[in-house]
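Model: You mentioned two targets. I'll fold them one after the other.
Researcher: Yes, keep them separate.
Model: Target one:
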Amino acid sequence: MRSYLREYNTRSIYNLTIHEAMPGHYLQLMHANRYQSPLRAVLASGTFIEGWAVYTERMMVEQGFLDSDPLMHLIQLKWYLRTIGNAILDQAVHVDGMTREAALRLMTHDTFQEEREAAAKWVRAQLTSAQLPTYFVGVQEHLALREEARKKWGRRFTLKGYHDAVLAFGSPPVRYARELVFDLPIE
């Protein structure tokens, strides 16, 4: 129980709420559901969805959430490190044959996850393949796209305008998000 409470402390709950609800999954999926079609439902990209949620964690800290609380920023960075570690874990387990002991060390020592969280993540990594990296790959795409929009749009760039543009297309495969946002041909 102590391990769980250390992992999910008050600021972690704030971060998790940002990720799962506002402005994370709930907001993104609310936008996606405005344009219901069987094709969009079938092609919904987990990488776009999870990347958006991790992106919002960072964006909220950048925007001064909790009065720019440095401990909140530290928690956001801890969860981002966890995102990176999860991507490494998936590769190491499914391609490199990482052992349980090595995986637990990676998670507890290198990415500061609590033991119970790490043990559950080990099971999750065994049961899924290529899902854990979607968070990291997706957030990298969202951050790169935001930076490109900032450069292309110049003084017209606003976070709200960017967010409205990127969320207007539901949950597209991240490889096409750029073309959709900038109204470019998809090849």
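Model: Target two:
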Amino acid sequence: MADSIYGNDGASYLHGLINYKFPAGTHPVQSQRRAKESFAMNAAGDLDAVFRHIDDHADEIVSDLQELCRQPSVSTVHTGIEEMAVLVRRRLERAGLEAEAHPTEGHPIVTGRLAGAGAKTLLFYNHYDVQPPEPIGEWASPPFEARIVDGHVIARGATDNKGNIMSRLAAFEAFLAVRGELPCSIKYIIEGEEEIGSTSLLPFIEANKDLLAADGCIWEDTFREDVPVLSLGNKGLCYLELTCRTANVDFHSSQAQIYENAAWRLTWALASMKGADEKVLVEGFYDDVAPLTEKEEELVRRMKPYDTEARKKKFELRRIALDLSDEELPRRHLTNPSFNIAGLDAGYTGEGVKTIVSGRARAKLDCRLVVDQDPEKIRGCVRRHLDQHGFEDIEVELLFQSLPAKSDPESDVVKACQAASRRACGEEAVINPFGTGSTPTWMIIRHLGIPLVGTGVGFITARTHSANENLKIDHLIEGAKYMAAICEAFGGS
């Protein structure tokens, strides 16, 4: 073939290339392999020094977390937001990053970047806003005092999400102190609207794709049972409000024989949409559910069984839905969409007795969607279902939506997190191929095209969104080492 394409001279030239012998030690593949081996050998010692630096500066790391927590930043009521954005920007600059606070239509978004030794770039995401602290009376100490109690920082935002911010900054600072540079380049985005829907995040991402371009992303998330959890995506959310109006007033219940009750009508409509077997009966609801890949099937099979008896005892559950076994529950929880009634409002629900026929009834539904399902399409399915079942009068409004997304479990950032878990925590990370909640991860995965892993500090006992939110100091320090190990592994991948 070489003769016919290149002629005899060309064939000889190609033959020479194919049979060329590289001088000893200069073969590019061998050189690259040796470089990686050398990197790994040097990294082991260097990383121990980075870990020691984190241990030696633990008191400073805790103090810095307390400073962040003492600044209220409640996005729901816009308390302390601008001040928090300034504080975060300055803290990034102190950690060595080039940082900027960007104005948006909503709350400022803070970005940072720092060039590292490796060719790869790792993007980190966090948020600086927090949930309201109410009910204040249930706190053991003031929610923005950041008091240390029994080795825990007690404060709103201690885990969600300021502890995660500090674990990352502490890792960056340790590398700079020990090595003078990071093993990979880093970029940082910290928003101020995560607790209220991240309204400004997607427009910012769309307008700043070059600024945020990276090879992988570390999202904020939590530990579980002393082992890091790697969440590779999120479920979508279709949040609907159904309103039934049968009259413009409520009637005396002596008229119940002749006036239609909106509460009953809405109840019948809701009953038509889901069976006692938990199957959703809305036509088209399951049409776009994507099948699992081989790797995803493997990861689901390896999931730790749920402890249903412990859950029943803790939450006083009557039973688990469908009486599924401990082994069956992880698959259903991770891979199935849901159709949930989040709230009902009709008639009189106050103390004592009031006899009325409801003229209006309302239900809020939240549907957690898996990959390839679309909130707008689900809204359309619900509308058609109601029309086809004689409930044309019931209004359907889409109040909020987010899209499902997932990352490749074989991507470099996932492998780096697995290696980091072994190195920093001495345990294999638990991999969730899909998160069970609905977060803005889809904006990164879908709009930046970046594989993403949700992982970070905190335990299920951290009481996020509740009174006495806390972060154990040991977990904060281990989390900083874990973040350092992720940077090291990703830089060498």
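Researcher: Noted. Anything on target two?
Model: The chain has 15 helices and 20 strands.
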